[in-house]
Amino acid sequence: RSYKRQMMCRRDIDNLSVPFLAIYESLIPPQEEKLKQKQLLALLEKLVCKEWPMARLYLYGSCANSFGVSKSDIDVCLAIQEADMDKSKIIMKLADILQSDNLQNVQALTRARVPIVKLMDPVTGISCDICINNLLAVVNTKLLRDYAHIDARLRQLAFIIKHWAKSRGVNETYHGTLSSYAYVLMCIHFLQQRQPAILPCLQGMKTTYSVTVDNVDCAFFDQVEKLGEFGRHNKESIAHLVWGFFYYWAYCHDYANSVISVRTGSTISKRDKDWTRRVGNDRHLICIEDPFETSHDLGRVVDKHSIKVLREEFERAADIMQFDPNPCNKLFEPY
Ligand code: ATP
Ligand code: MG
Question: Which residue ranges form the domains of the chain, and what is each CATH number?
Fold first, then answer.
């Protein structure tokens, strides 16, 4: 892979925005789905507060970060202070509480890396995962949502990339490919790098929002409505950005030496993070720094085999965007 392919000019690229925007529109959850999610959250709150009046429920993940497509499951975090109970006991008890109501398939997964209760609400048809005290995820959800409000192209790009990743089977962390969260960070990073930039670096600006969670200081500028139209000097169309995104990950990113970092709005060197070799199961073959848990590489699930799959998929997509007269069909072809 010593070559860097030229990103050739494709004159008709902007015309391709029409089909991409149509795909984006078709993935947006309808208002009634959002209402049903709220309805389910209210039911869960009622049940939980009967047992634990001081507990709070927060939505996080794609149902709250604005990157959720239609018919997604919802992610809920139970914030609770129970000094004398460990997480798996809370999970068991929570499952018990919810079992008694008419929720379906209530399961306590106490042995998972992140212990959760899973359930399905037959009234709304929505499935839900509830975790305990994972407040960093609630904060990174807010960061992603705030970024989405700065420029509409981020949400469009992320929907298209998530849709591509699901279609191509590269959105499965248990098979060594990347999480949706990782793909959204890759999109934010990419838009921070455009010239002129489409997104700023919120963690590099004046702090207007600050919390400390699990000993991690989370601080950033969150008054995004005051940024005006930040990306207005950049006129790149969505089709151009989809093309550029795949081109970037196929031919421009330095996998051997660079870590992408939304926190700094740039890339940093693997050497500075000591991510140059395999430690335990973390291979650091593609490095994506978590914006708050900076010792956490979201690419750590990627192994020797899946890095090859991923890079071939980026190249395939970049080539389709480059040469195919009608790229949407082939790009999202089931694998
Ligand atoms: P999907 O639409 O595919 O469900 P999602 O945004 O809910 O997408 P997930 O990968 O299911 O994405 O993750 C849910 C949330 O959990 C993320 O938005 C993020 O807040 C948090 N999260 C997921 N993976 C990690 C991780 N490795 N480290 C920290 N937080 C994570
Ligand atoms: Mg989710």
Answer: 13-27+152-331 (1.10.1410.10), 31-136 (3.30.460.10)
